[in-house]
Amino acid sequence: MLITVTRTGGLAGGEKTASLETECRADGPELERLAELALSTEGPAEQEPVPDGFRYVVRVDGKLVELQDPYLTEDQRQLIDAVLATAV
After folding, report:
1. Where are the domains positioned within the chain?
2. Residue 71's closest CA among 80, 62, 59?
3. pTM surpassing 0.85?
């Protein structure tokens, strides 16, 4: 499973993108579980923009979901953190 996370916004307004393939990773099954939950879990209906907050686009095998702080579930946050940690 290919997972890509793009983070934009924040105080500096920069962009950071990272991708990982779960197939050969020891934590692959857990990342796949988190990815499925991230795609299936909806955030609050009314998401007020947060000044200097981060926005995320999570792509999983061609599907995508747009998320933003502080409206992330714990599963979404874990997935985003794990993927962005692989960025160079």
Report:
1. 2-84
2. 80
3. yes
